[in-house]
Amino acid sequence: MAFARLPAIVAIALAAAQSAYAAAAARPVTCPSGHTTANAACCALFPVVDLLQDQLFDGAECGEEAHSALRLSFHDAIGFSIHGGKGGGADGSILAFNKTETAFHANGGIDDITDGQFPIWQQTSLSAGDFVHLAAAVGTANCPGAPRLKFMFGRPAPKAPAPDLTIPEPTDSVTSILARFADAGFSPKEAIALLASHTVAAADVVDVTIPGTPFDSTPFTFDSQVFLEVLLKGKAFPGNGSQPGEVLSPLAGEMRLQSDFVLSQDPRTACFWQEMIDNQDFMMSQFKDAMAKLQVLGQDTRKLVDCSDVVPVPKPFTQKIKFPASFSKKDVQIACHALPFPNIATVAGPAPTIPPVPGS
Q: An example Gene Ontology cellular component term from the record (predicted)?
């Protein structure tokens, strides 16, 4: 279904809102679309949300494109340093300069989502940064259990590509990963909080013979299952033997990243990792806060407008996570002994085989 280019009202409305940003908060307004928002500038975003849901997310599904949009926002923003000398942060450079940044080794496979987003972005008047980070918030909202992410509107156009070697890789050591996060302004706990995204993620290029291999047994639900399953004793590799960046997985059809496993076992991060398990509200709040910080890296937030109310409200996840069938606490590789391990039931039946994420 073709869409005409969205009108320039985006830039006009944003400029008007920014000129009055220091004034008292505006009263809620009803947009021409019928939506209600706290700021008139945000009205121009509702058609973009509809466009994303229709053309990118297959009618608001928590599928491969939603997972990849979230990954793209991280890879876009993390190429930044609080000390300067690196990229522009959450500026959309990974979309605007996609031919450069998708060639980086750490961005392997991300060209699928940049190729999918680029023509849709061209139908809008949004900056690349606003588009990338709005798409991440909207796609994440399609996943039951996810928090409703914040969205700040008004990023300027990116000036240049981010440099290479600024994105942590699965083969990196814990020290290297935490140092890169610290350079971007994130604590070890915030780094682990951002990894909650792996609950709805999949690997495409760690083992190219099995694209779309998920990291937990519930890849379409934003739950804490990934934090549990990373701790289970490994049994086999899901694809063509051992590949750089993976370790033995506990379940057939599931991949366990080396970086996730070593972070789950390291004394600097093990207790916070374990604290996420079967702790849905805590995991959601920690992820939401870390993402709010990530999605404005390098931006002057005084010049941005809070348009979080354009982001759809995710469906809740209210169940208790469970051990996969045939697993129990005896299979957990516990690395944090300062906290009690949660009491978790086991799914009845034989151990499952996890199918790949469709569309990969």
A: extracellular region
Cα separation, 146 vs 27, in Å, equals: 28
Within 10 angstroms of residue 202's Cβ, the number of other Cβ atoms is 27
Q: CA quadruple 212, 214, 215, 221: dihedral positive or negative?
A: positive
The Cα-based distances of 274 to 192, 261, 336 in angstroms read: 10, 12, 7
Claim: this prediction has a pTM higher than 0.85: yes
Cα–Cα distance measured from residue 341 to residue 287, given in angstroms and rounded to the nearest whole number: 21
Catalytic residue among 67, 75, 133, 198: 75
Run means of pLDDT, 10 residues per run, the chain, 360 residues: 47 53 64 95 97 97 97 98 97 98 96 97 98 98 98 98 97 98 98 98 95 96 98 96 97 97 98 98 98 98 98 96 97 97 95 79
Residue at token pair 């509702």: 46
Predicted confidence at residue 1, as pLDDT, reads 41
Distance CA 26, CA 38 (A): 6
φ and ψ at residue 104, rounded to 5 degrees: -70, 140
Look up 35 and say whether it is catalytic.
no
pLDDT (0 to 100) of residue 87 = 97
d(CA 313, CA 148): 6
Give the single-character DSSP code of 246. E
Cβ-proximal residues to 31 (8 Å cutoff; 6+ apart), any chain:
37, 40, 42, 43, 46
